TrEMBL record:
It comes from Oryza brachyantha (malo sina). Residues 166-442 form the Protein kinase domain. The chain crosses the membrane at residues 98-120. SMART domains: S_TKc. PROSITE patterns: PROTEIN_KINASE_ATP (PS00107), PROTEIN_KINASE_DOM (PS50011), PROTEIN_KINASE_ST (PS00108). The keyword Cytoplasm does not apply. Belongs to the protein kinase superfamily. InterPro entries: Kinase-like_dom_sf (IPR011009), Prot_kinase_dom (IPR000719), Protein_kinase_ATP_BS (IPR017441), Ser-Thr/Tyr_kinase_cat_dom (IPR001245), Ser/Thr_kinase_AS (IPR008271). One of its GO terms (cellular component) is plasma membrane. Keywords: ATP-binding, Glycoprotein, Kinase, Membrane, Nucleotide-binding, Serine/threonine-protein kinase, Signal, Transferase, Transmembrane, Transmembrane helix. It is a single-pass membrane protein. This is Protein kinase domain-containing protein. ATP binds at residue 194.
């Protein structure tokens, strides 16, 4: 039985090889009626001794239709057995030519089969790896999510279509985390799609962390998360599209002319402070942003401020006054006490926000080597001016020109509040809730309650 199976397998491969070598048309190599205990594939025919233990295969033709007389068929094999080689009775040149064509055909068939099997197994491994990766990322996103809310899961195909396959024409910006693209979903919703850097594990972790944090919060002054995608090699997050760039763009970037009016700056400061205060006081557990800066404050169509980029954010630990972690953030905004002690608290965000307030007052960058060696750091630059009782000298002259005395008083008040946020010891800094209340008080002085309602509506 085993011998019969081996014979059948041999003739199967021989049939394939002959079909390739002789260029037979599709369907031409058919199976003849059973002969003995095996089936001999056409165009092979057996000799009179068919049925003997050693099968006699004597003739081969290129096509049944072209051979009128069976005796004219080319004699291919005189005898074959499990221990014998093929014996041919034809011209040696023709014999070797035909032999090599058969061997090459058989080899080619095996190579094609092996390549197909390899490609299939490789695609299977890639698909399984992607499924495992997506599952692991979903578990990461659901970990420590006390709110029970989860982000909508977009497919990679859906986001490729929305961004025109991540066309450079749709690129909104890029940074250490990766890139942000403008996209349009199938229902017409305009979104921003944030991509982690390909192959950068740290960037990937930051995007996953941002999705996890934003899934737990909901405030008008925080950028709104719409969903995420975890089935591609780099994870993506999808959030509301904010059309007017960042606060940094409007203070000292491409959108800084004309300058933002003072009342608008106060409103942005108040909106941002309320968003951060929500993270510290209303979120459960509290959230420390860890990277508050003007380039992470987005402005919507009405120039209302929204805090974004939660990639470095950390959740507060219950019963602990701080989170022990390596200092991360942006130079010029980084809390010096956090940098020294590796103790992250809500007051670390307060310090960073104090620098943002100084940017709103001065329209200058947090770090600027053009200011001179002693004034590179904006916080130190303004603190030195305040110590010398010339705080108003560093306030943007474009704001002071035409300003009323009351407006200049509110500028000074905001400057003093900013310096309070920058106190060396964190115990001496106000909370973000207190900062938001103080800014609201300054706005009431400057514009009255009616003006405040108009700005916040």
């Amino acid at each position: 039985m085993a011998s019969s199976s081996r014979c059948a397998l041999f003739f199967f491969f021989l049939e394939v090889a002959v079909a390739i070598a002789l260029l037979l048309p599709s369907g031409h190599a058919r199976v003849c009626p059973p002969c003995g205990s095996t089936e001999v594939p056409y165009p092979l025919s057996t000799a009179d001794g068919c049925g003997d233990p050693d099968y006699k295969i004597s003739r081969i033709a290129r096509a049944r239709e072209t051979v009128a007389d069976p005796t004219t068929r080319l004699s291919l094999l005189e005898a074959w057995s499990s221990v014998q080689v093929f014996l041919f009775g034809v011209d040696k040149i023709k014999l070797w030519s035909l032999t090599w064509r058969i061997v090459c055909g058989l080899g080619g068939a095996l190579v094609v089969a092996a390549a197909g099997l390899f490609a299939y197994r490789r695609q299977q491994r890639i698909r399984q790896a992607r499924e495992r990766l997506a599952k692991e990322r979903e578990e990461i996103l659901n970990a420590n999510n006390s709110s029970g809310r989860t982000a909508k899961n977009f497919s990679g195909r859906e986001l490729r279509r929305a961004t025109a396959n991540f066309s450079r024409d749709n690129l909104l910006g890029a940074g250490g985390y990766g890139e942000v693209y403008r996209g349009v979903l199938a229902d017409g919703t305009v979104v921003a799609v944030k991509c982690a850097k390909l192959g950068n594990t740290k960037s990937t972790d930051q995007v996953l962390n941002e999705v996890r944090v934003l899934s737990q919060v909901n405030h008008r002054s925080l950028v709104r998360l719409l969903g995420c995608c975890v089935d591609l090699e780099q994870p993506l997050m999808v959030y509301e599209f904010i059309p007017n760039g960042t606060l940094a763009d409007h203070l000292h970037g491409a959108l800084s002319r004309p300058p933002l009016p003072w009342r608008q700056r106060l409103a942005i400061a108040h909106q941002t402070a309320e968003g951060i205060a929500y993270l510290h006081s209303s979120a459960v557990p509290p959230i420390y942003h860890r990277d508050i800066k003007s380039s992470n404050i987005l402005l919507d169509e009405r120039l209302r401020g929204k805090v974004s980029d939660f990639g470095l954010s950390r959740l507060a630990e219950q019963g602990l006054s701080h989170v022990s972690t390596c200092a991360q953030g942006t130079l010029g905004y980084l809390d010096p006490e956090y940098y020294r002690n590796y103790q992250l608290t809500d007051k670390s965000d307060v310090y960073s926000f104090g620098v943002v307030l100084l940017e709103l007052l001065t329209s200058q960058r947090a770090i600027d080597f053009g200011r001179g060696a002693d004034d590179v750091n904006l916080a130190g630059h303004v603190q030195r001016a305040a110590d010398e009782e010339r705080l108003m000298d560093v306030v943007d002259q474009a704001l002071q020109g035409g300003a009323t005395r009351l407006e200049r008083d509110t500028m000074k008040a905001l400057g003093l509040l900013a310096l309070g946020c920058l106190e060396e010891r964190r115990q001496n800094r106000p909370s973000m809730k207190e900062v938001a209340e103080e800014i609201e008080y300054i706005m009431n002085i400057e514009a009255g309650n009616a003006g405040l309602k108009d700005l916040e509506s």
